[in-house]
Design a protein that fits this description.
The protein is mainly alpha-helical. Helices cover 79% and strands 0% of the residues. It is built from 20 helices and no strands.
């Protein structure tokens, strides 16, 4: 039986998870396009807008472990559908916002909570459950790659509509795109029909607290989660502040949309590559290399004034290194701890990522308001990224052995 024949029964689940993730990630990554016209129109500051994005990332991160644990109890489909509806409500609230409160409720709380149910942790858990372990890393890369396509559509569409008809109509166009999340979530929810694992005779099944305790006593998991903090800080700083930075440098506003679109496009190649590479080399070592290279590219780009060419090259390289972390993190957790609590444990690691995202969005806005530039913000992100990459890579290459306290059931695939 060929690889594709073996995956054919899982295709509706994988396509649904990919489309849902594509819309969820692509739309939220493109919200920074509306920051310059939105802040001028409703009279709020850049730091006010970034407070909302920071709250979004914090709500997403704090709620993600609970959403992952809840998926074991109620199933994936109710969570995926509920999150999709909440995402639509958040965009509508943002389109109607008249001040900071509307932006905070829509772009902040509602979309943040929705992402906990529709983002990468649950989408990857759905995909991992739908396929055999032998195909897992490749499939996680494929889903992550497909999930990157949303920015290719959302960023240019949002910029064109916003320039022609105002930022509110740009957000309304995002509402229309987000409607596709509803049928996608329904099909992805078919993963509920597939058992998380095959119990072994006499095995003791872990509860959520036991599974979390095993993970927190496993040093590679802790190191990966802490390095994930820096990953979130760097990436959300860029999606939130790159349009403002280019505007500050006098660049054409369409360049921001082109850059975000390129990030989405090269996400596809990066996700495919790292999904493939994760099946052949140590996943945590690959993560350390991503953090190192990404930080060096940040230094190269921000140390001189941007040009059209340098911005497009920067966006392409960063895009290649962007979502490649998702199949590596999700695949390593599934390989190490099993499938039953994968979404919860990925959510715990992702909570660290989102605390970093909070600081990347809010801290960047605060630095800009205080100093009038982004120099200190990008320097801090690059320095922490280099440190995280060195520690992650060194620890991955030096640590051996399974997690302490791993039960036979937890290790079952």
């Amino acid at each position: 039986m060929s690889r594709w024949t073996a995956l054919r029964p899982a295709l509706p689940i994988l396509i649904g998870a990919s489309l849902m993730l594509s819309m969820a990630m692509g739309l939220r990554q493109s919200l920074g396009l509306f920051m310059p016209p939105l802040t001028r129109d409703i009279g709020i500051s850049v730091s006010d807008f970034t407070i909302a994005i920071s709250v979004q990332n914090l709500a997403w991160g704090l709620l993600q472990p609970f959403a992952g644990a809840l998926a074991v109890r109620v199933g994936f489909r109710p969570l995926l559908l509920g999150g999709s509806v909440l995402y639509l409500c958040g965009l509508v609230l943002l389109a109607c916002a008249q001040g900071l409160l509307g932006v905070l409720l829509g772009a902040g709380i509602a979309i943040g909570a929705a992402m906990a149910c529709t983002g990468s942790a649950l989408a990857m858990a759905v995909a991992a459950r739908a396929v055999p372990a032998t195909h897992r890393s490749m499939v996680l890369g494929l889903v992550s790659a497909a999930g990157s396509l949303g920015a290719l559509v959302a960023a240019p569409l949002g910029q064109v509509v916003s320039q022609a008809h105002g930022w509110r109509m740009g957000v309304a166009a995002f509402v229309v795109l987000a409607l596709a999340m509803l049928p996608a979530a329904w099909f992805a929810g078919r993963a509920d029909r597939i058992p998380a694992s095959v119990p072994l005779a006499g095995a003791v099944q872990q509860n959520a607290r036991q599974a979390l305790g095993v993970a927190l006593r496993h040093h590679p998991f802790v190191v990966m989660a802490l390095a994930y903090f820096v990953c979130g800080m760097q990436l959300v700083f860029l999606t939130t502040h790159l349009p403002s930075y280019l505007d500050l440098c006098g660049m054409d506003p369409m360049l921001s949309a082109q850059a975000l679109g390129l990030i989405g496009g090269f996400n596809v190649l990066g996700s495919l590559f790292f999904g493939w590479a994760g099946g052949r080399w140590p996943k945590q070592a690959l993560l350390g290399m991503i953090y190192l290279v990404r930080s060096l590219v940040l230094v190269w780009y921000f140390r001189t004034l941007p040009t059209v060419e340098s911005t497009l090259v920067f966006a392409s390289v960063m895009g290649f290194l962007w979502l490649g972390v998702a199949p590596l993190v999700s695949g390593w957790i599934a390989d190490t701890f099993g499938l039953r609590w994968q979404a919860m444990l990925a959510g715990v690691a992702f909570c660290s990522h989102q605390v970093g995202s909070f600081l990347g969005a809010f801290g960047g806005g605060l630095v800009y308001d205080l100093l009038g530039n982004y120099t200190l913000a990008w320097q801090t992100g690059a320095a922490l990224g280099l440190a995280a990459g060195v520690v992650q890579l060194g620890f991955a290459l030096g640590h051996k052995g399974p997690p302490p306290g791993m039960t036979p059931q937890a290790a079952t695939r």
